[in-house]
């Protein structure tokens, strides 16, 4: 090792010092891993909060006009509409799902 490495505590010097104290090295590595997991969880929670704050909830009630996504919208062409409708929301199924009726009075098969 060069004297400059020892003087400025290069990575190689620090690694060798930590390797000499194996118990300390294991604790440091485990502590670093736990800190990394905590940081990842904190980041994911912050990201989830941000995304949830960007979502605008729409309250749909019976009688509202809505559009329905076409079943094969991904296969549609670039200029083809991805939505069909308008439909009238007839009744609430589960939270977030509705029975739809078109303008002729025909009920859709899926909510």
What does this structure look like?
This protein has 111 residues and is α+β, with helices and mostly antiparallel strands. The chain folds into 2 domains: 3-54; 58-111, SH3 type barrels (Roll), CATH 2.30.30. 44% of the residues lie in helices and 17% in strands. The chain is built from 3 helices and 3 strands; from the N terminus they run H-H-H-E-E-E. It has helices spanning 3-8, 11-20, 22-54, and strands spanning 65-69, 83-92, 98-101. A 3-stranded antiparallel sheet has the order 1-2-3, with no helix packed on it. The longest helix is centred in the middle third of the chain and has 33 residues, at 22-54. 3% of the residues are buried.
Strand segment tally: 3
* Integer tally of domains: 2
Termini separation? 73 Å
- Quaternary state reads single chain
Record the SSE blueprint.
Blueprint: H1 3-8, H2 11-20, H3 22-54, E1 65-69, E2 83-92, E3 98-101
Antiparallel strand pairs: 1-2, 2-3
Summarize the structure.
The chain is α+β, with helices and mostly antiparallel strands and 111 residues long.
Keywords:
3 helices; 111 residues; alpha+beta; SH3 type barrels; 3-stranded antiparallel β-sheet; 2 domains
